[in-house]
## 1
Amino acid sequence: PGAEKTTDYWNEGARRRLESALALQPVTHRAKNIILFMGDGMGLPTVSAARIYQGQLAGGSGEDNVLAMETFPHVALAKTYSIDRQVPDSAGTGTAYLCGVKTNAKTLGLSGAAVYGKCHTAFGNEVDSILHRARLAGKSVGIVTTTRVQHASPGASYAHSVSRSWYADANMPKEALRDGCKDIAYQLVHNTDINVILGGGRMYMTPKETPDPEYPDDPAQSGIRKDGLDLISEWLSSKEVPGLAQRGAVPGHHRAGTSYKHLVCPCWQSAQYVWDKKGLDAVDDDSVSHLMGLFEPKDMKYELNRNTSTDPSIVDMTEKAIRILRKNPNGFFLFVEVDRLAHAGGRIDHGHHSGRAKQALMETIMLDQAVARAGKLTDPLDTLTVVTADHSHVFSFGGNTLRGNSIFGLAPKKAKDKRAYTSILYGNGPGYSVRDGGRPAASLPAAEDKDYRQQAAVPLDSETHGGEDVAVLAQGPMAHLFHGVQEQHYIAHVLAYAACLEPYAAEPGCRAPRRASHGPRCSPQPLLALLALCLASYLAGG
């Protein structure tokens, strides 16, 4: 604090940053790997408040703290509006940054010609995501989320749906089923060969009344599918060669660690399903090519509510995904979402929707920890890493608070109504309250509680999204293409260009594209002998 009072402190700090900027050179070769981190609802005020909170958790005043994502050298702003909304939702924005086109709110993986809720308008208007294009190019691909894997943000990477809410067939109208539309969970298993799927959403994958493995005595957590499909078994079976399933593994019995082996080039790989942290930790990264982990019936728990012995964190899941995906010599694409920031989406998003700022900011910190962990597991010379948000929230902090004031603390002076108020406030939401003819006074330590609802100006059951631009932070090959103020769908085009994916696969600097829908291609010449050798070894117990 004393040094800050001198001009040398500020001048020398600025000089160091200037020298660093002058030495910065863009990485202009193409990217082998791409990691896209998305903080659902992580607007700029959320990033700033999380920076302070993280710094205060470390014992500092917080304001001068630096998040891992903030060390990325290239920054842009993205305009988040959708075709029909000034203030967007997570489905329309997900289609923009993952598929490269803006579309209508509440629709996934479809152009703007599709109409929300009208099944027949989906056909012929599908658009492919970066994840799908990366898989076709022979890369391994994965999705990691703290919400259900069928949610709008991850759903935009593999699904084509005129309604973001069609999680399972039980959530769809009869007319849509009759017209041939498929639910999002079904599309998760059948649309794209996804190597790693980690998040929540078990109930949408299993037949109605199938007991949940974690909550077997709670019917509300059971499967809800009306079509009788067991999509977890279907997914596992699709990764095996008929007749070569691992002995003792019975399709339809989803024990943590159940494994089904299948034959691919050059020999054995395996698909595995887990539903708790113990099962995830037990997965052998080197022997698994496909991993599905569904850790809750719906969304995963907030970090501040998480059982650390049974539920993996976003950091745990991100690390496991990278360790599995990076084995592919062609590279990988990984989408990581924290949706606890708000309420109808990721957990950042969920926290804000419920007006619980502490939950939202801790989710943001966890996303940043996942960014830091990914940086240690990858090389910025061959991996393009991007951190962004789909939209913001009507969240703010102010009140002329003093340096070092708790981010969840009170403003130093009372309001015009002679009552204290917190620095953090919401423009609308469930935090609106009237007591004794006026606004209740905020107080400590209540305002520091993880479930405290900050006050809101307008009463709503759920706080709304914000419409301002969101940040895009990037490092690695072609990261310099993120600059200035861009439309949100530009993000997908930079990712595709950087990794030589369609429609940029033939651009200068790209090798001839390799297309593979189910993994690396191999020469057919030695396969018969190799198959015989592997089969003999398998039957002999090897």
## 2
Amino acid sequence: NRSPTAILEALASTVRNDVNQPIYSTIDDPFLYSTTDRVKKAHLAAYESGRKTAEHMLALYPDYFTQIWDDPLPDAWKKDSEYIYAEPCEDALNERITKRKVVEAIDMYRTIISNGEPLSQESQEKLLELLVVFNCKDPVEETDIGSYINAPDYRAFSPFPPCTWQKANAAEEVFDALPEKTASAYCQMIRGMSANYHKEGVLSMYNAMKANKMPVDVETYNAILKVASLDTETIDDVKLFVETILKDMAANNVKPNEKTFISAMVNLRRLSRWSGAKKFVLALFSEMKACGIEPGLSTYVQILHIFYYFKDRSSKTPELLEQVLDDLKGKEFECKTENDVQFFRSVMGMIAAHFPDSKLALRLHELLQYGKNRDLLSNRQAQYGYYSDLFTVIIPLEHIDVVMDLYKEVVPYIFFPNSETFKLILESIEMHEGHQYVSQLYTDLQWTSMFKDFDFLSRFTQTLAERKHEAKTQNELCMIASSLMDQWTRKQHLHDALPVNGVVIGNLIKTHLNNDDLKTAWSLF
């Protein structure tokens, strides 16, 4: 068996993939190229809004589009189409469950119950599953582009995440009315309460299952472990809770998986400032290895967050991080859990905060470039933060050739540095006499408004005028100086003119004098 795209993937593997390219939808229109993070967000948001508008028009007027395609529109596009079953009945309830219309399904359920009509156990459990997954609210549709643009929700890792489960809600109403309270129904309730940080309800349901000797599956045990640190006073309480659940799993012959140990480690991450958290997380890691479970990125990111807590600025050593990078070297990863996408962004932040070591940063970046690991830089905030920290670490410590190799790899379409990062690059150029790279910077800076900042413009022209270079490089610098002066001359009476003053013009004059071009220098004077 092979996937529908297997042949395309095979063909794609034969060509070099240069990811530093404009977004494919704008490739034929340079005016729409997205460079800075702000412009990229605006263009992607506009693209997403247009797609939603088109879907809305198709849903409102499906009959107008029948002549375009021979086949009828897919049901998924007919989001606002009428229901087949309008009257209260079990089929009407199942229809709303299938369409994920949570609020309408609740109303239909209550109408059926009030009419005294029977509902099957299966339909009621399907409704219960819908309610606990979406917390009794209509789901908010999220697309791939929306997920990339918007910041992720990190409430799960805060020390005290708020409980978002409302007591006596529709899910509890359906559960209480079930003809038979099966193990499946209990497990669904536990998962829903855990996802909304309702520890009291989770424990109540779990104790009821134990009292009735009902089987608990591994995903439900994982959900129970997630709430271990909520409403606890000491790390010893958390350890006791986690150990008790793991012993229950062993007693019931339920084999743990990676998510089991990640769920336990998340609690220690919430309490990473407490003494004992580091020792216990290493004990969990040893138990995980003893169970024959291969740790993934999610496991490592939880351990590293505990050892390198970002608010703890005390002296730290990088030995643990070096061991992790050794273990991961030459491996390609897929996104298996929601925490996998945090690894590269989080670890680069740790390097920048605790031990700015360019060799470590480049080792991590080498791992990112291996295979398809780059896909794990999930959203634009993570992508921007990763590269921002990477440049901040390596620019002062590495030769300008190394810095510019990385620069050419990601600028301007993947990442565009801010003005402070550009100033660091200019300092590195002066230190290592790498003025041959200035023309590359100038080309990319034309996409931005950074030259309208006087401090940046004066710093840039200072690099142009620093000293005399060999003929080719000096000619390039003079062309840049002339280009800047032409821009100012054309717009000097407009509001968006370059902020040129005597300091900037003095630097431009020096640049031309370094090229023995007295005529142009005198003209500027």
## 3
Amino acid sequence: YGAPGVEFMGLHEENNTVMQIHFIPDQCQLVTLLDDNSLHLWSLKQHGGASELREEHRFTLKGPPGSPPSATQATAVLPHSSREVLYLGTESGNIFVVELPSFRVLEDRTITSEAVLQRVPDDYCNRRSCELVEALREHPKNPDQILIGYSRGLIVLWDLQNNKATHHFLGSQQLENLYWQRDGSKFISCHYDGSYTQWPVSSDNRQPEPLENLVPYGQKLVSINLGWSFLSASMNLVSAEFDDPSAMVVLAEEELVVIDLKTAGWPAVHPPYLASLHCSAITCSHHVSNIPLKLVSSSVQVLVMELNDEDAEHVVDHAEADLLQDQEGYRWKGHEKLKTRDGPVRFEAGFQPFVLVQCQPPAVVTSLALHSEWKLVAFGTSHGFGLFDHQQKRLVFVKCTLHPSDQLALEGPLSRVKSLKKSLRQSFRRIRRSRVSSRKRRGGGNASEVQEANAKFDQDALQEMELAPVQRKIEARSAEDSFTGFVRTLYFADTFLRDSSRHCPSLWAGTNGGTVYAFCLRVPPAERRMDEPVRAEQAKEIQLMHRAPVVGILVLDGRSTPLPEPLEVAHDLSKSPDMQGSHQLLVVSEEQFKVFTLPKVSSKLKLKLTALEGCRVRKVTVANFGSCKTDDYSENDLAVLTNLGDIQIISLPFLKLQIRYPCIRKEDVSGIASCVFTKYGQGFYLISPSEFERFSLSTKWLVEPRCIVD
């Protein structure tokens, strides 16, 4: 990384950890060592007007037949300044020489541990073996000499021309690393206990120098807490034989720290991101497009926040939404609701909460929708959904979506674990129903046919229990399945819900059981907004026949264009919707897309996903695809991510499959679950608990870095 947007990426075919990276001097090449002991040579080469990082060769060091793996397990790598060879230190203490770029082992130049120990005092050899090679360092002034450090503290200066040891240094602590001084007269050894020692390289003195030579008495120390380890550094490490450093870069286990050595007190340089890459796992993401300038220059409960340029102290108003509505037969078995703080609370400048809505029962909030123009926020849980007026700070309505069989939804967060046995029972129950219906279609049959059919259905039962089924038949689900009332999506729309002559504000909700609820809203005009209440009345209820979870709801205007975000229309960032022609409703479930006419809500067309592949919708969004050749043309399509990790582009409003891209490995469950789409055909997903991979589906907005190294 040299600057924002400057990036070169290479991906190993092997799914193994990268242990070490080393540059080949002056060659635009580097070598990587993986935890499977394989070495890979990479080159930066220009292609199509940009430099690409390409893998040139791969190699695994192998020992003689019958030798243990430790004999050739690489622990230290030294690319020599001649750019002709690599020195590989191993667990056995031997050092192998590998030719570049062919990766051919030069066996006659191997440095064995037996040869190294020839000049080491007998008492030291008797007490300690060489063990593994911990560090290899080339002499800064003499390329024919290398420094070899062994894990138990032995350090040897090796003459490559004469193939012998010229100096040995006997350390008493476990070695971690070695560093040369610029002129090659001294080197520093770092040890496991946090100590470091300076060693002079001369014919008459091979004893370590006292630490006072490194940190003079009276000098002030600065201790920097890295969270994962501590670094202590002197305020004055500069002398004639060293460079004049301006900054120090420290790579800790979980973060990269840069320390300003030119400013008094050695402060840390603030990184250009909000938090350390690995300090905490990312659990939820949302992409926002067309952010207003004010925002740029300044989420078991719902917090409504507003932007304030100054610090403020105020009381956060509190409201409660009882989603069960005192219905009989339901009893919450989970944790109690969180207690609210009394009195005013001080908040820093930025987004400051001004009202808190607590749901009863206090289950996880599963969906949210905010309409900033109407001053309304909708929220859903596994028990139902509600609408809150955050301008008047009052609850408009709540709707319980629980089915009589949804007892598991009342047992708290652990109920999903408890429902495993029930899920298996339901799987076998569906299979038995299929078996009975199959017999009826065949009209009986002899005993052998029935036995054969039973064996087949038993095999189907095992496939049904797979965590990631790839050949599951799509069947209608029973209303008795658990969590049917789980609210998956909420959507605000100004559309024709009651009749075709008048449009009105509306709220739509989709559940895990394939049910869609539609409510007409009456929002008072601005001059009477604080005097009259917002009113809501249920207008429609749609039940999908296959009862698959509803993951998306969308209204298309008279031009078959998705309704724009109201805030974008208010800031002239989007065109106003067409309210003259008839509107259409698109309902996306896990297993199909279906278009209805409005306001009659009659089925118009649908698209089913491929049943043979067990394909299910995981994420869906409307993406605007602009032309890469002209600014006058763009189209809106659906971008759909499935449980198989592929992305499908589907046209609107005709629901025609345009293209399919393989994007995420189907085994990468966390990557699929974390995927976020943008409005312009790009996306992000987690490749580790704290790192995003970015991709683009649009030819207009390419995310591939186009960088050149001369």
## 4
Amino acid sequence: MLLFALGFLLVILQPSAGQFPRVCANVQSLLSKECCPPWDGDGSPCGELSSRGSCQNILLSQAPLGPQFPFSGVDDREDWPSVFYNRTCRCEGNFMGFNCGECKFGFSGLNCTERQVKTRRNIFQLTASEKNKFLAYLNLAKNIPSQDYVIATGTYTQMNNGSNPMFRDINVYDLFVWMHYYASRDTLLGGSNVWRDIDFAHEAPGFLPWHRVFLLMWERQIQRITGDENFTIPYWDWRDAEDCEVCNDEYMGGRHPTDPNLLSPASIFSSWQVICTRSEEYNSQQALCSATSEGPIRRNPGNNDKSRTPRLPSSADVEFCLSLTQYESGPMDKMANYSFRNTLEGFADPQTAISNPAQSGLHNALHIYMNGSMSQVQGSANDPIFVLHHAFVDSIFERWLRRHRPMLEVYPAANAPIGHNRENYMVPFIPLYRNGEFFKPSRELGYDYEYLQEPALQSFQDFLTPYLQEARQIWAWLVGAAVFGGIVTAVLTGLVRACRKKTGGTSSEIQPLLIESEDYNNISYQSNF
């Protein structure tokens, strides 16, 4: 009954997420390289008549890239989205969307002026009704076509440079699976050649901001298709877990009684079909994933290669990762040492922060542990556990941001792998988002985590932590400055006293200002930390 009621909402609600806007997936838009659809509110492109935005040339970052991708002009994702469009809507104020018809994350209201902060909660803290609603929402998204977006089934060259559009419809959930695939797929070089060392969403600085945007868009999509504006993604806190606690029919699906690689028939997810899991097949055909069904979700948690992932991450692993002060380091890829990003992503040891791609820690450990659809990067979002997992990974990112309070400049502006510099637009999102725009606390983006809403004292301690760390680094200098200042003060005091003795006192005209007794108690003493 719940699913029937939710399905009815499709008639009156239109979802909006990312990838190719349906209204721009045509010959005219591709040949003109312009995607500036009208806003329904006033009928003008980008809502210009209502001062929501205007159609503008895309400003691409000119910062140099790292050496990981030695090609140019061979991949549609280079300088995203300029291969397809070089003019899009640039929205003003708190407006957002491919036609400036939405509010930025964290804002709501008719004119997008009302701030809001919603709370993501632990899935095990949800009531039975809330949990069942979440599962129903997931299933609804899997069965509702996206109204606003389509996916590309061919490259720009295969589309004859725009004169032969190749797009197709897709359901709301699979739209996000496809976007995750598209961002992480190999580069097709022609013939049977591919370049594998490329990923616009992983193995580089943009890993955390990219998935942050991905979850925000997914969250908003669910809100729109269900009409539940208060919906937030739950998270699974997997620290110190001995097994997959959500892998049962009450939550994300238990094990099949006769085939341990499949889900229990009692789970709604057992009927789901996966897409975009056959990367070698696409590569050999020099084709893109067309989002056709490729079989059921596969999952066999715990029966993974123990030499690579011996256990699920511990609380100690997370705490060590949070102690790392550098967001990024060295080559800024999976070989980076002492990098918070690389350690959280799982390519560096969670006890030493030294790169070790042969092992899988933290984020990567969960994917490998699931031993199925989640264990292959391009198709990992097929398993709905992906959403719970990445929500918790994002919460760790949030803890690091709150603890260290980095300036935007901490995020690399140049020399990161392709697509990962601060001002690069994230592939394959339209509307456009830059990596650096999401290197900020979650509350500025309209959401928080239940377990991070700590008492005021802890918040004050979190506030002081980065300053205390800075103080430790310059402690010797501070002590030296204090000693030097004391010596100078003593010398000057001695000189002043000597001068007073010579002049025999000070006239009233040059005496220091005196404090009237009635004003004495009004003085405010301030100290700078």
